[in-house]
Structure prediction request, 281 residues.
Amino acid sequence: MKTAPRLSDILEQYSALFCDVWGVIRDGHALLPDAISALQQARMAGRGVVLVSNSPRPSADLAQQLAYMGAPDDAWDAIVTSGDATRFALAERAPGPFLKIGPAGRDDQLYDGLGLEFVSAEAAHAIVCTGPSGEFGWEPEDYRGMFERMVARDLELVCANPDIVVQVGDELVWCAGALARLYRELGGTSIISGKPHKPIYELGYAALARSGWSEPRDSVLAIGDGPETDIAGARRMGIDSLFIGDGILGSEISGAGIGAAEDALAAYGVAADWYAPHLIW
Prediction:
């Protein structure tokens, strides 16, 4: 891994960017102006930019949310989300019935128009999870007993957000990926379409093509702060990655330099091509 203090230092090597959202261009509370500016400059330099987010919401909803936060309309060409990719998996399993796990009402746009049926854990034929919920608990371990019973019934869990945690200001909050991981550890099957898996990247390449991009696939640079999602996904897809240190691993490596970043990634069994504390131009 090499240090890339500024995106402009390495951009000439790449034709397009797949950029994460939480931990890279926003910290959970607010947008990060320097990161937004870096994406704007990349587009001005003729590079395609697609936000690739593990948000369980459809991309149109995330775009609306970012606009509400003050995001400009010229910092990216398109947005694709885990929610977009997950809708295909849910449509294949419709109408279910599903046990729905997630914050009440927050991610319901995910289900619009799919004709899904939601029932109790006892009546469900599958599970869809957008994150922990107050109804069942906020910690992964709160789900162990219920998941053990559902694994025994051989039910699939469709995970709409593969992130294990997400940065919200100075805090790390559990995501659906943590519940899917527990489900797998108990012997269950989880269906994941977001990073680090292929479906969301295929949506990203399709979005680039719609914008007129026609360069080799391996000329895309992935930017993110998640070892198990952004960095692992880039490696799986055969593209380079820029690891942003002041994201979900910020408490471990902030100010400690590239060596600490390499050690932190190695603990997850992954390696990035480039490292920067923040995304700046």
